[in-house]
Amino acid sequence: MFRRFAVISTIALALAGTADAAQRRAGRREPRQDRVVERLQQRRNLNDAQVNGLRALQEGRQRELQSLRQELRQKGQRSRELRQETRERRRDINQRFRSGVRGLVK
Hints:
Layout: H1 2-26, H2 29-44, H3 48-105
C-alpha cells in the first residue's frame, strides 16, 4: 500500500512540476512560433494559404496544450488534496495506536 502511494505521489509531483514549467514557458512561445513560420515560408517558398494553414495548426496545438496544462493543474491540485487527506488519516491511525499503547501500559 505504501509503495503504491509513494509511486503515485512521485508521478503526481512530476506531473505538477511539468505543468508548472510548461506554464512558465507558455508566454515565451508565440514569438518563437512566428519565427518558425517565417523560416518555413522563406525556405519552402510557402504561399499565403500555406502560411495561414500553418498558423491555424499552431493555434489549434496551443489550445490543446493549454487544455492539457489546465488538466494537469487540476490533477496536481487533486493530488495535493489526496496527500493531505492521507496525512490526516495516518495521523489519526497513529493517535489511536498511541492511545491503545497508553491504555495497555498503565
